[in-house]
Design brief:
Elements (H helix, E strand, L loop, with lengths): L3 H21 L5 E6 L4 E4 L10 H17 L3 E12 L8 E10 L4 E10 L5 E3 L3 E4 L9
Antiparallel strand pairs: 1-2, 1-3, 3-4, 4-5, 5-6, 5-7
């Protein structure tokens, strides 16, 4: 990524996701945003449903991002989730942390960090890779 804002946001998202995987062995989707001053805030939601789908968790976060963007208070956003993905050069799906990042300048990217749970709760991380992302938050400006 050429954008330092997205690099900072990615580091915050991956850091929290790694912490949650180490401590709880799983995590629910969550978000993070960077305001105009460069400050990062973590965003989450608590759906009323006791067994929410990832979309039930992500939708309220995205609504909050849209509201903040309409008030011109954000310059970058990201959603982090636990996914299964096929890494480049591989043929089988693996567990991965996925960060969907978007910047007000139009850059959007998905960044994946594969991982494997090992004995005694340790986690082995693979090589980070990315793919073009979809503009969902800043596309209406």
């Amino acid at each position: 990524m050429a954008n330092s804002d997205l690099d900072e946001l990615l580091n915050a998202l991956f850091s929290l996701a790694k912490h949650l995987l180490k401590k709880r062995h799983q995590f629910s989707p969550f978000g993070a945003s960077m305001n105009e001053r460069g400050e990062i805030a973590i965003a989450g939601s608590m759906p009323a449903n006791l067994t929410p789908s990832p979309d039930d968790i992500i939708a309220p976060i995205l609504r909050g991002f849209h509201e903040d963007v309409s008030n011109n208070t954000l310059r970058a956003v990201g959603i982090c989730m636990d996914v299964r993905v096929i890494p480049p050069g591989e043929s089988k799906k693996v567990d991965a942390i996925c960060a969907q990042l978007e910047h007000q300048t139009g850059e959007a990217v998905n960044v994946f960090l594969p991982y494997r749970k090992k004995l005694f709760g340790s986690i082995e991380y693979g090589e980070v890779f990315g793919s073009p992302g979809e503009r969902r938050i800043f596309s209406t400006q």
